[in-house]
Amino acid sequence: MLRTAGTHTGALIVNADDWGRDRETTDRTLDCFQCGVLSSVSAMAFMADSERAAALARDQNIDTGLHLNFTSPFSAPRLSTHLLKHQERLSKYLLRNRFAQSVFNPRLICPFEYVVAAQCEEFARLYGREPKRIDGHHHMHLCANVLLCGLLPPKTVIRRNFSFQPGEKGFSNRLYRKLIDRLLSRNHLLTDFFFSIEPMDVPGRLQRICEMSRQHLVEVETHPIRAAEFEFLTSEKFRRLAGNGEIACHFDTLFSTVA
Fold first, then answer.
1. How many helices, marked H, and strands, marked E, lie in the chain?
2. Residue 175 CB neighbours (<10 A)
3. What kind of fold does domain 2-257 have according to CATH?
């Protein structure tokens, strides 16, 4: 079911978030990977299963990016109080209301810099390399402080905003997302489109996404820890939907062969 990069101009990239968050999340995701329905995973640093997940990824050659986390408490043992306090401060701010991530907060410049750098360094320690691809838990890698302070390393693959058809979101919402994606594209690599696998029950939706991937780089976000998503990903229905040979076997390498 998996295909190699560069066989045509498009690709369907199926990525699983939250790798390493806890043992159950890692194991569910690993089951999907071994079924051949995932291209890659996004790994969390400083979490309960981060160490074991990294060892599994290295052992099984799983394409792994960094899943920046500002909003869920770090759960690994023996973390510094300084790091925990900084992350807790960011979490309280970003989760205060749905507009917080869009507002630049000058008081949080240093905490954001510290927490981003710490997670990048921890990823490098766990995986033996700098992250080539970065996205964010609850998509907070696109918050104003991260973008305007240039905290995402240049020339890395960065997850763009969700893609919507005209009419699915209001004009101002779509304009804001378009502006953010344009800002990202100046110094980073982006897919052409980005979707969540949910909702899975809208007639024709996933079929249209799969058809788009024949000519475009399309990333689909999944969370195998969710029972409905896990059941769907490992089902024959999903295999038929994606089609033989349509799921990319890696994420990062596509940008050296297709972009």
1. 10, 9
2. 11
3. TIM Barrel (3.20.20)
* C-alpha dihedral (16, 21, 22, 24), degrees to nearest 10: -10
- CA–CA separation, 166 vs 170, rounded Å? 8
Q: Domain segments of the chain: what residues?
A: 2-257
Quick: pLDDT tens for 157-209.
Answer: 999 999 976 667 776 777 888 899 999 999 999 999 999 999 999 999 999 99
Tokens of 201: 């029950």
For the chain, give the number of residues: 259
Listed in sequence order, the residues at least 6 apart from 48 whose beta carbon sits closer than 8 Å to its beta carbon are 21, 22, 23, 75, 76
**How do residues 12-34 score in pLDDT, each as one tens digit?**
999 999 999 999 999 999 999 99
152-157 LR contacts (CB < 8 Å, sep 24+): 152/116, 152/187, 152/188, 153/120, 154/187, 154/188, 155/187, 155/188, 155/189, 156/131, 156/132, 156/188, 156/189, 157/65, 157/132, 157/133, 157/188, 157/189, 157/190, 157/191, 157/251, 157/252, 157/255
d(CA 176, CA 79) in angstroms, rounded, equals: 36
Q: Is 50 exposed, middle or buried (0-12, 13-18, 19+ CB in 10 A)?
A: buried
